[in-house]
Amino acid sequence: MAHVAEWKKEEVIELKGIIDKYDVIGIVDLMNIPAKQLQEMRKALLGKAVIRMSKKNLIDLAFEDCNADKTNIVDLSEHMDGQVALIATEMNPFKLYKILEDSKTSAPAKPGTIATDDIIVPEGDTGFEPGPFLGELQQVGIPAKIDKGKICVQKETVVVAAGEEVSKQVAATLSRMDINPMEVGIDLKAVYEEGSVYTSDLLAIDEEQTLADVQNAFRNAFNLSVNAAIPTDETISTIITLAYTRAINLGVQAAIMTSETSEPIIGLAQAKMLALASEVADAPGAIDDELADKLSNVAVAAAPAVEEVVEEEEEEEEEEEESSEEEAAAGLGALFG
């Protein structure tokens, strides 16, 4: 049996200790991160997460040793690409991903680097006076000319397409133009939590869209509950209010006299009477002097009063919906806080 170095055994034990200690374990890629920036990122994560660099095979062994207690954690081994490191935390995976993404900074393009996105040089004044730099721009495929005593890029140009390698000449040109198209930071590959492994594409969510989707789902559920008369803590008040309003309207339309409907019924009857009187007012002797006086001085109908009650109730319902939506938004906000 081949001899295993003692330091490797100790390293696996230490890695296993980290994995056992934390609930959330991730694999990150530290490729192309300058030492200074990595140190700054470590400081930013102090007290929030632990980063431990090690050899891939030793991390694999640590996962295997921990798999009995943390089922499926060995699945993280499938995501160890690049210069890998272990990251351990108590934060939920989505918050961890957001923190790491927010910590990324722009950096100059280095020769030989593969562009993850199109590298674009914008149209406009470069700030350079006429000179050899004009030819340098043209050599890398950037259309440029002299305009008002300055070298100007004639149109927006893609100098390196996504997936292509950055040449030495292009890197030098971009650096002179102070264009930093690359993004440097800790790249989270996958995270393990409670038996599940989440890849970066699942963790990269649009917060605004997600919040809007949750609010829309809440609004639809609220309306369904109200219309189907399914009482919940959020909808019971609106259901009762709506039922009361409909009962009042039904009582008024059916002329069922109660303490709540008598006034609008009388008002509605008077409005109809006045409307009918106005239709025949021009006919000689059709209405008496008292009715004619009412027509000339009173322009009040009871029907709008009933509608006003309904509108007020609907406004209350909308206010309650908005309040509930705000509560839902506050709850989701905690996920990204």
Describe this structure in words.
The protein is α+β, with helices and mostly antiparallel strands and 337 residues long. Helices cover 50% and strands 15% of the residues. The protein has twelve helices and twelve strands. The strands form four sheets. A five-stranded antiparallel beta sheet has the order 2-3-1-11-12, sandwiched between helices. The chain has a three-stranded antiparallel beta sheet with strand order 6-8-7, with helices on one face. A hairpin with a 2-residue loop joins β11 (187-193) and β12. The relative contact order is 0.10.
Describe the structure concisely for a colleague.
The protein has 337 residues and is an alpha+beta fold.
State the main characteristics.
single chain; 337 residues; alpha+beta; 5-stranded antiparallel sheet; 3-stranded antiparallel sheet; 12 helices; 15% strand; disordered C terminus
**What order do the SSEs take from the amino end to the carboxyl end, as H and E?**
HEHEHEHEEEHEEEHEEEHHHHHH
Tell me the Rg in angstroms: 36 Å
Number of helical regions:
12
Shape: flat
Helix percentage range: 40-55%
Write the topology of this structure.
Layout: H1 6-21, E1 24-29, H2 35-44, E2 49-53, H3 56-66, E3 84-89, H4 93-102, E4 105-107, E5 119-121, E6 124-125, H5 132-139, E7 144-147, E8 150-153, E9 157-160, H6 168-176, E10 182-184, E11 187-193, E12 196-199, H7 200-203, H8 207-227, H9 236-253, H10 262-280, H11 289-297, H12 302-336
Antiparallel strand pairs: 1-3, 1-11, 2-3, 4-10, 5-9, 6-8, 7-8, 11-12
